[in-house]
Amino acid sequence: MTTVTSNDPSLEQERFLNRPSNAPLLEIRDLHVQFSTDIGLVRAVEGVSFQIGRGEVLAVVGESGSGKSVTAMSILRLIESQGGQITKGSIQFEGKDLLAFDEEALRAIRGNEIAMIFQEPMTSLNPVYTVGDQIGESLTLHRGLAQEAVRAEVVRLLTLVGIADAENRVDEYPHQLSGGMRQRVMIAMALACDPRLLIADEPTTALDVTVQAQILELLQELQAKLGMSILLITHDLGVVASVAQRAVVMYAGRVVECAPVEEIFENPKHPYTVGLLRSVPKLGQLQGRLEPIAGNVPDALSLPPGCRFHPRCPFRMPRCDQETPTLRSFGSAQHQAACFWSDENPERSLLDIHPKGAEVST
Amino acid sequence: MSNNPQQLSVIGTLPKGTASDLDLISYWESVWLRLCRNRLAMFGLWCIAGLCLLAVGAPLLSLNQPLYWNAGQGAQFPWLWSLFNRLLFENSVDLFFNTILVALPLWTLGYLLWAKKRRLLSRKLLPKYLMMALGFHVALLCALGPSRFIFVDNPLYVTRPVLNYRVEEQRLHGAGQAVSSVFPMREWSYRETDPAQSVQGPSAEHWLGTDTEGRDVFARMLYGTRISLTIGVVAVLLYVGIGVVLGALAGYFGGWVDNVISRAIEVMICFPSFFLILTLAALIEERSIFHVMIIIGVTSWTGVARLIRAEFLKQKNLDYAQAAVALGLSQTRIIFRHLLPNSIAPVLVTATFGIASAILIESSLSFLGIGDVTAASWGQTLNAGRLEQKLWLVLAPGFAIFFVVSVFNLVGEGLRDALDPKLKS
User: Fold this and answer.
1) B29 at interface of A, judged by CB pairs closer than 8 A
2) d(CA B38, CA B142)
3) Looking at beta carbons, which residues of chain B come within 8 Å of A203?
4) Which of A181, B14, B165, B220 is in Cβ range 3.0-4.6 Å of B376 for a Cys bridge?
5) What ipTM, to 2 d.p.?
6) H or E segment at A5?
7) CA–CA separation, B32 vs A91, rounded Å?
8) Residue-wise burial string across B275-296, b where 16 or more C-beta atoms lie within 10 A, e elsewhere
9) Can you tell me whether residue A29 is helix, strand or coil?
10) CA nearest A134: which of A172, A96, A77, A78?
């Protein structure tokens, strides 16, 4: 940051704080992804920007259809094989723009520097190969290991992800493993080449609660041990609280709030974040009912004008369906939200105002 | 099969997610075990094995060359050398089977040594070894050049004057000379013509009678097995190869690739296939059995292509395919190593049925007189029977065709049930 010409100290500070360890590992800027379907153009992601620092765990939170998975898939350009088109924006990984890469350069990054684990451990492994074959494949491909070295390395990886009796498990087929085991195998596959960024797309959604906790614990442990960054896609705020350092809240293809996890939980600045928090049961708080967010995620073909959340928002103001709010800082530069109500009442906490009785349009 | 019956009865239902020894089998092993339970399919498999043995061992069963011959001028072994004689075995298919017959003792020895080295004499190794040996054999023959295709003289394939030892023996006996000889079970070559003996009924001399040219029908049936099996396997391999590649490309890439291939498939389907084959066969002047295989191969790939395309459309959207992309694997690898093994099961079933239908097509072509005249095809004998209005000339090849086709269909049906246990329940 020696060449900063601006004299505005707050701007410099903002820049600094926005980048947890100076240069971010991954920086997504103004990403636009759309799908051309028979019934029209679906704008799945519009203008999403965020960054992940080295060794940081960032959670992307949102309901189904908020565009969080599409964003994740865009990083490795997997979205293109699903019919998606990245129309605008840039994805910088260690200063290189992944969107400018050709297929071959992408293959060198995929699985090697950026690895991904998927939601469904039941179907994410190829049923016809043994666990060892599948993990070994990327070892031979990216690291060029010889046959004997591969087996030893696979056993080491399986032990690393907490699979007991790894020596024998190597030769087993996916159908012989439980869901939690398979997810561990997926993680071992992802870790095979020591990636700098691990994208975990709802890694615990398909697992039962106790196994979920184990897998999350494992991810945290591995992150601490190996020092990689993790991009955690989830709709589960409990997961966010236990694992992530920062969270990005997405709604209908846009980022609505982006803040350190404590801020998200203690001082949310977007009504949607509040809605998410209120709809999660808390242990020890037995009284009272859960308060779901009224209404549904808007249809991607007919998105509401202005703030996309306004039809469901209890804090709606007249300008909300006219103008689109942009991300603005609250308190520190790290805490950003896009909400007109918070803009006008920056000191008031949304959590203190009970939305009951507030008008909610359908 | 000597599998534990108790084990098999549990495998039939294949409980999911239960931890036991039963889980320690791969998908193909479980398919194999289910196939083993199907008695009809196993009967079919044993029959096919028997047919293969007949095809390989045909010269041991019927040939006019003695295994051992001594007419006072020392021991001779004409049988062994005649196996590579172009005048006795005009067709390259025969050369292929004859070399296998000669190499069989070597293979067995190799297998025993190999299995001993691995300290495993298990059944599991046998299929692998058979594949290796067959692959090596075909590669060797291809390297030496099949006659007619590559204009290099195959050193294994010689042209030498043939002495009809059966006639010679009779002549020497007539002259009062002592001859010691060991002949194969029957003493007829499938090419040996005898106008004086034309269209004879079954007798002790000719078990199944003779055809219009006085050739022994039994020998022709025997050597016809070789032709039928080769036609079936090669034609099917050819069209499965074409179909798998085209179907995989169409299914995986979609878009204009899919459009082009799908339209090509539709155009091919529009032609009534047998008439197309007939026309193509009629266009070739000097038809060899390989032309027939190629013609069947290039006209029948549409079914396989459509199956594989549909299967790929399904498989490529499954998570493991996405995961493979995310791991940075190349497209070729994803298509052939990850998607194909998961899509091949239905093709196996069609391929088995396809062998039966390819045999039928070849017989039909020969019956109509546009097959390979040098091959001892069953269809030819059938045609002779029709022309001569002789029942035994119709029954023998008719039964042979019926038997082989049903046996392959039995195995195909068994395979279909084994691959999809849901179908049955």
Assistant:
1) no
2) 37
3) none
4) B220
5) 0.81
6) none
7) 49
8) ebbbebbeeeeebbbbbbbbbb
9) strand
10) A172
Chain B interface includes A138 (CB < 8 A): yes
DSSP B125-183: HHHHHHHHHHHHHHHHHHHH--TTTSSS--TT-B--PPP-HHHHHHHHHHTT---EEE-
Q: A138 and B319 in contact by Cβ < 8 A? A: no
pLDDT at B6: 39
Q: What is the pLDDT of residues B5-29, one digit of tens each?
A: 434 333 444 444 444 444 456 777 8
Answer whether residue A128 shows pLDDT above 90: no
Q: Which two tokens stand for residue B14?
A: 């294949």
CB–CB contact A120 B26 (8 Å): no
Return phi, psi of residue A52, to 5°.
-125, 130
> How high is the pLDDT of residue B423?
53
Residue B319: C-alpha distances to residues A84, A238, B124, B247, B269 (Å): 17, 25, 32, 21, 33
Which helix (H) or strand (E) segment is A48 a member of? strand A40-52
For the CA atoms of chain B, what is the radius of gyration? 25
Q: Looking at chain A, which residue has its C-alpha nearest residue B329?
A: A107
Give the list of residues 6+ apart from residue A8 with CB closer than 8 angstroms, or none: none
Dist CA B68 CA B64 (whole Å)? 12
Report CA dihedral (A332, A334, A338, A344) to the nearest 10 degrees: 0
For A37-46, the pLDDT digits (tens) are: 888 888 899 9
Which of A123, A128, A176 has the CB atom closest to B319's CB atom? A123
Residue A213's contacts (CB-CB under 8 Å, 6 or more residues apart) are none
User: Mind telling me how many Å the CA of B242 is from chain A's nearest CA?
Assistant: 23
Tokens describing residue B376: 């001892």
Q: Would the CB atoms of B27 and A173 count as touching at under 8 Å?
A: yes
Q: A142–B328: do the CB atoms touch at under 8 Å?
A: yes
- Highest averaged pLDDT of the listed ranges A200-204, B86-90, B109-113, B417-421: A200-204
Question: Quick one: residue B201, left, alpha or beta (phi over 0 = left, psi -120 to 50 = alpha)?
Answer: beta
Task: Report the alpha-carbon distance of residue B314 to residue B233 in Å, rounded.
Answer: 28
Nearest to B224 by CA among B91, B126, B79, B26: B91
How close does chain A come to B23, measured CA to CA in Å? 6
Tell me if chain A has a CB within 8 Å of the CB of B24: yes
Tokens representing residue B62 in the block:
């019927």
Q: What is the pTM of this model?
A: 0.81
Q: How far apart are CA B101 and CA A95, in angstroms?
A: 66
Angle made by CA atoms B144, B280, B412, in degrees to the nearest 5: 75
